[in-house]
Amino acid sequence: MSNQTSQLNSAPAGHWFIIGAALLWGTTGTAQAFAPAGFDPKVIGALRLLIGGIALLYLAIKRKELGKFSDWKPVPVIIAAAFMASYQLCFFAAVAKTGVAVGTIVGIGSAPIAGGLLGLFFRRERLGKRWLLATILAVSGCSLLSFSGGDIAVDPLGVLLALGAGLSYAAYTLMIKGLLEKHAPNAIMAVVVFLGALFLSPALFSIDFDWLLQPRAISVILHLGLATMALSYWLFARGLQSVQVASAVTLSLTEPMTAATLGILVLGEQLNTQAFSGICLIFAGLVVLVIKGRNKTYKVGE
Fold first, then answer.
1. pLDDT greater than 70 at residue 297
2. Is 240 exposed, middle or buried (0-12, 13-18, 19+ CB in 10 A)?
3. Which of 9, 215, 230, 265 gives a 20 to 30 Å CA spacing to 16?
4. Which range, 124-128, 236-240, 256-260, is most confident?
5. pTM reported for the whole predicted model
6. pLDDT tens by residue, 215-230
């Protein structure tokens, strides 16, 4: 059986891997709500990457998947790690500047569009009507969720930072997809995440050790690093092996749906009609992509 046929047959499983990763990402906000007061988002982001990177690196070394240093092309790895680090910085800064609602919808909502365009231009991926419909449904749902909380404040710099976050996420997804053609998923995520952590390491110089050594802080950091980083990207890389970039980024909109649901069930947030409609639209978008998962993934010119 050819590699292309194998990828086509594994596409439905790939969709579920990516949804599983996004479900874990969606726990990030709820986990931070349990953190002691006074945490620095930049430090949280850096520690998340560092712990996740170390865990993935340990797994890759134990399974002897890293290979030789000469097997790796440094440029795509550095670019992927840089975009992963810039996503953390841009997104947290955008939320601080323009608020959770605008930062989330512009950052997360722009990612599927950026992912579709990058996949089309650099990998000649055909987007298709199903991807377009799923993206419209999911982004619309994300918009309703983000704007269901009340007052909205728009800061131009914050919007630009959020767009940078969306582009960064789509770009590192594109780079990881390319690296998967030559390297094992564990090895790629280990190298990219750990290098991304090194890029953000200067933020650790401002760490408050009194805050970090609190039991609740330790629990939150370990969850963020091991579950929302190491395990989630272990799943994400496997899903990306058989799912095109555009679809992968759209499927990742499971994240805000999960975050909203946990906010209601765990944090006691109120579910209004707008938020419920948003959750339903995102779910509908995911169904559009997944239910036809056995269809072929074509490239332009095939």
1. no
2. buried
3. 265
4. 236-240
5. 0.81
6. 998 999 999 999 999 9
Query: What is the chain written as a DSSP string?
Result: --HHHHHHHTHHHHHHHHHHHHHHHTTHHHHHHTSPS---HHHHHHHHHHHHHHHHHHHHHHTT-S--GGGS-HHHHHHHHHHHHHHHHHHHHHHHHHHHHHHHHHHHHHHHHHHHHHHHHHH-B--HHHHHHHHHHHHHHHHHHHTTSS-----HHHHHHHHHHHHHHHHHHHHHHHHTTTS-HHHHHHHHHHHHHHHHGGGGGG--HHHHTSHHHHHHHHIIIIIIIIIHHHHHHHHHTTS-HHHHHHHTTHHHHHHHHHHHHTS-----HHHHHHHHHHHHHHHHHHTTTTS---BTT-
Q: Give me the pLDDT at residue 75, please.
A: 94
Assign 253 a pLDDT band (cuts: 50, 70, 90). Answer: confident
Query: Do residues 264 and 121 lie in contact, with contact meaning Cβ atoms separated by under 8 Å?
Result: no
| 3-class DSSP state of 108 | helix
CA 211 → CA 30, 35, 224, 282, 293, distances in Å? Answer: 18, 9, 16, 36, 46
**Do residues 290 and 15 make contact, with C-beta atoms less than 8 angstroms apart?**
yes
The rounded distance, in Å, linking the Cα atoms of 193 and 233 is 9
The predicted-structure confidence for 181-196, as pLDDT tens digits, reads as follows: 889 898 999 999 999 9
